[in-house]
């Protein structure tokens, strides 16, 4: 597994760069989604998201 | 996988086996042991004095602040005080109602535009309708004349007075300040403004008020140019919340808190994100530090004086 990862992704600078870029994107998105979940859980009912359905037609 | 696991598990390998030798090295490399005794004592005294003075200043700052003739507002338990707690947007919506129906008679909100309310207190359609109720000056048109038109999303919220002089003339010479940054602009802003709005009382003996002044213990020296404007049922909320004086004051303060800190919720969310990211990167940083220091800590220096060499 480690060897596979090394040979395919990390060995050449070109694939290493792509790995970093794609990895960053996935990581950041994941962290954002989790953060939003926690934030909305903690502030249940207080955010605009939770009350806007009362005012939209 | 096995290889990388083994690498992580052999973490212990990175640990340096520094015992007495390492401590001895530290001792030898330090320059302080060449200092004279007097110098050490002097430095210690200096350190203790500096620390003592700082502690004293801090203690004085924390002690009773009794220089001004003013009551200090209590700290209320605001719903947005927790490290992850957002503002309550139902409260913000009512707060806008309070500002619009009460405060806007005297106070401007210059740094807020109608569009800022979209997605915070009202939907876009609602804000468009609110803006259209106002008449704002625009121009010049083709003939160079200025004209009035209904407000748009991009307009800033119109002020009650055209300039400071007009505002003073209408309020016995007192200037109602712009409320956009009033919460951040005052020490302990949210508690101060809440206490100010709900804290009017009869002046104690010995305090004389001029025409158009009202006694408020939370205002410096007590004589405030703003009359009490918040009473029970001063307005009627569209969502049916009972409009007690404290509810009205709380809602308008929460709204002004948002006006001063538009990024408030974003900041609270960022707190969660930073903690999450920190927890992930902490082990990496610790590992990296050990990796870099392991050579330093395992290096042994040997000095053989010339006379011992063959």
TrEMBL record, chain A:
A Pfam family matched in the record: UCR_UQCRX_QCR9
Main location (coarse class): mitochondrion
Biological process terms in GO annotation: mitochondrial electron transport, ubiquinol to cytochrome c
Membrane topology term: Single-pass membrane protein
GO cellular component: a single term: respiratory chain complex III
Keywords: Electron transport, Membrane, Mitochondrion, Mitochondrion inner membrane, Respiratory chain, Transmembrane, Transmembrane helix, Transport
Annotated InterPro entries: QCR9, QCR9_sf
UniProt subcellular location: Mitochondrion inner membrane
Superkingdom of this protein's organism: Eukaryota
Subunit structure comment from the entry: Component of the ubiquinol-cytochrome c oxidoreductase (cytochrome b-c1 complex, complex III, CIII), a multisubunit enzyme composed of 3 respiratory subunits cytochrome b, cytochrome c1 and Rieske protein, 2 core protein subunits, and additional low-molecular weight protein subunits.
Functional note: Component of the ubiquinol-cytochrome c oxidoreductase, a multisubunit transmembrane complex that is part of the mitochondrial electron transport chain which drives oxidative phosphorylation. The complex plays an important role in the uptake of multiple carbon sources present in different host niches.
Family: Belongs to the UQCR10/QCR9 family.
Protein name, entry field: Complex III subunit 9
TrEMBL record, chain B:
GO cellular component: mitochondrial inner membrane
Entry cofactors: heme c
Binding site for heme c: 103, 106-107, 226
Comment on bound cofactor: Binds 1 heme c group covalently per subunit.
Highest taxon of the lineage: Eukaryota
UniProt subcellular location: Mitochondrion inner membrane
InterPro entries the UniProt entry points to: Cyt_c-like_dom, Cyt_c-like_dom_sf, Cyt_c1, Cyt_c1_TM_anchor_C
One GO MF term attached to the UniProt entry: electron transfer activity
Gene3D superfamilies found in the cross-reference section: Cytochrome c-like domain (1.10.760.10), Cytochrome c1, transmembrane anchor, C-terminal (1.20.5.100)
Keywords from the named record: Electron transport, Heme, Iron, Membrane, Metal-binding, Mitochondrion, Mitochondrion inner membrane, Respiratory chain, Transmembrane, Transmembrane helix, Transport
Residue span, Cytochrome c domain: 90-260
Segments crossing the lipid bilayer: 41-60
Pfam families membership: Cytochrom_C1
PROSITE patterns: CYTC
GO BP terms: mitochondrial electron transport, ubiquinol to cytochrome c
Predominant location category: mitochondrion
Membership in a protein family: Belongs to the cytochrome c family.
Cited function: Electron carrier protein. The oxidized form of the cytochrome c heme group can accept an electron from the heme group of the cytochrome c1 subunit of cytochrome reductase. Cytochrome c then transfers this electron to the cytochrome oxidase complex, the final protein carrier in the mitochondrial electron-transport chain.
UniProt name for this protein: Cytochrome c domain-containing protein
Species: Tetragonisca angustula
């Amino acid at each position: 597994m480690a060897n596979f990862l090394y040979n395919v992704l990390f060995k050449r600078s070109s694939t290493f760069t792509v790995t970093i870029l794609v990895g960053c994107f996935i990581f950041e998105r994941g962290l954002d989604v989790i953060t939003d979940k926690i934030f909305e859980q903690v502030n249940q009912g207080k955010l605009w998201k939770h009350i806007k359905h009362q005012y939209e037609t | 996988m096995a290889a990388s696991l083994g690498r992580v598990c052999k973490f212990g390998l990175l640990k340096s086996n520094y015992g007495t030798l390492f401590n001895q090295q530290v001792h030898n490399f330090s320059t302080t042991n060449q200092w004279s005794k007097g110098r050490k004592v002097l430095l210690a005294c200096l350190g203790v004095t500096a620390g003592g003075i700082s502690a004293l200043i801090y203690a004085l700052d924390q002690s009773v602040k009794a220089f001004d003739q003013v009551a200090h507002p209590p700290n209320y338990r605001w719903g947005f005080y927790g490290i992850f707690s957002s503002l309550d947007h139902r409260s913000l919506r009512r707060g806008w109602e309070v500002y619009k129906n009460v405060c806007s008679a005297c106070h401007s909100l210059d740094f807020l535009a109608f569009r800022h309310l979209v997605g915070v207190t009202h939907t876009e359609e609602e804000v468009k309708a609110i803006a259209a109720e106002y008449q704002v000056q625009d121009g010049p048109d083709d003939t160079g004349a200025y004209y009035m038109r209904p407000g748009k999303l991009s307009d800033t919220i119109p002020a009650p007075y055209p300039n400071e002089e007009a505002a003073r003339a209408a309020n016995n010479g007192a200037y109602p300040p712009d409320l956009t940054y009033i919460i951040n602009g005052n020490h302990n802003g949210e508690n101060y403004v809440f206490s100010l709005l709900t804290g009017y009382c009869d002046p104690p003996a010995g305090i004389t008020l001029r025409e158009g002044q009202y006694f408020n213990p939370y205002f410096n020296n007590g004589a405030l140019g703003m009359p009490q404007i918040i009473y029970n049922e001063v307005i009627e909320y569209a969502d049916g919340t009972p409009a007690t004086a404290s509810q009205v004051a709380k809602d308008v303060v929460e709204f002004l808190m948002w006006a001063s800190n538009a990024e408030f919720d974003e900041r609270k969310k960022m707190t969660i994100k930073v903690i999450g990211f920190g927890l992930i990167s902490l082990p990496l940083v610790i590992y990296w530090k050990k990796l870099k220091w392991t050579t330093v800590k395992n290096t042994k220096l040997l000095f053989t004086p010339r006379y011992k060499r063959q």
